[in-house]
Amino acid sequence: MSILEIKDLVVSVEGKVILEGINLTVKGGETHAIMGPNGTGKSTLAQVIMGHPKYVIENGEIRLDGVLLNEKTVDERSRLGLFLGMQNPVEVPGVTNFDFVRAAVQAHLPQGQHLRLGKFILSLEDAAKELKMGSGLAHRHLNEGFSGGEKKRNEILQMKLLRPKIALLDEIDSGLDVDALRIVGENVTAMKSPELGMILITHYQRLLDTIVPDVVHIILQGRIVKTGGRELIAKIDAEGYDWLKAELGIETWEEPEKTPVSLGTCATKKPGPLRG
Ligand SMILES: Nc1ncnc2c1ncn2[C@@H]1O[C@H](COP(=O)(O)OP(=O)(O)OP(=O)(O)O)[C@@H](O)[C@H]1O
Ligand SMILES: [Mg+2]
């Protein structure tokens, strides 16, 4: 069983602190939902866990099965078992979907082991069928001209083939029509096992009706300010976040003033109090 541990994580992008001290542990078999208003740092958290070089870790650590990830590259993290289904999947003209997934699966095999092409093609076809994806998508350039829903299904296709230990799914429901949401939900739910821990970032209850989480976290202003059970989802759906801001003494909700970080001192930057 795998374990992702995030401790006191402070992250900045282009000198602006976005995450102000995140603590989160996700174990194999668990599904955690992360919700929160726009711009509060949810995608930043997903991207920094996966190792996007744009984000600077000012403080804290990210570990997978005890291995410190802070300095590891994206491909190293992927080989260790992390997967990110992106909010906005990137278009890569010139690389076919087929070649991309094949290269990714090959890169996950132990050194010296070669992908068995016939077996790979069969599993790709099965996965595409289970996701009810058009047959031509495998041979088109990665995400180029894909509809929003096709891009999201394609992320799940990759997840099915890569079989991660910890999967981060960032708004995998955005852009999906009602039927596609059900199909994606069923496919992700079918992957649930003690070998897979998941973080689902979403704004909506409808995804979490399909992929039922064990724990729900709410992020505000770069921090997890509340953790609870499924009752939080219904409350957010009905009432938004004002009750929580009131509970926390945050009167206004405006783009928070972020403290500029001097690159020379950033490694020692500690989180400050929640701003009102
Ligand atoms: N390169 C950047 N330069 C400056 N600010 C950035 C940069 N990238 C992200 N941010 C800011 O970081 C904050 C958090 O963004 P993030 O994408 O993590 O939010 P989110 O919680 O995922 O929002 P949403 O629900 O809209 O997807 C936002 O205010 C965003 O504008
Ligand atoms: Mg986001």
3D structure, described in words:
With 276 residues, the chain is α/β, with parallel strands linked by helices. It has a single domain, classed as Rossmann fold (3-Layer(aba) Sandwich). The chain has helices at 42-50, 74-80, 97-108, 117-130, 148-162, 178-191, 205-210, 231-239, 242-248, and strands spanning 3-13, 16-27, 31-35, 55-64, 67-68, 82-85, 92-96, 141-142, 166-170, 197-201, 215-220, 223-228. A six-stranded mixed sheet has the order 6-9-10-3-11-12, with helices on both faces. A four-stranded antiparallel sheet has the order 2-1-4-5. β11 and β12 form a beta hairpin. α4 packs across α5 (148-162) and α5 (148-162) packs parallel to α6 (178-191). The longest helix has 15 residues, at 148-162. The chain is globular, with a radius of gyration of 19 Å. The model is unreliable at 262-272 (pLDDT under 50). Magnesium ion is lined by residues 42-43, 87, 170.
Topology readout:
Blueprint: E1 3-13, E2 16-27, E3 31-35, H1 42-50, E4 55-64, E5 67-68, H2 74-80, E6 82-85, E7 92-96, H3 97-108, H4 117-130, E8 141-142, H5 148-162, E9 166-170, H6 178-191, E10 197-201, H7 205-210, E11 215-220, E12 223-228, H8 231-239, H9 242-248
Parallel strand pairs: 3-10, 3-11, 6-9, 9-10
Antiparallel strand pairs: 1-2, 1-4, 4-5, 7-8, 11-12
Helix pairs in contact: 4-5, 5-6
The structure holds adenosine-5'-triphosphate and magnesium ion (MG).
Magnesium ion (MG) binds at residues 42-43, 87, 170.
Would you kindly provide a brief summary of this structure?
The chain contains 9 helices and 12 strands. The protein has 276 residues and is an alpha/beta fold.
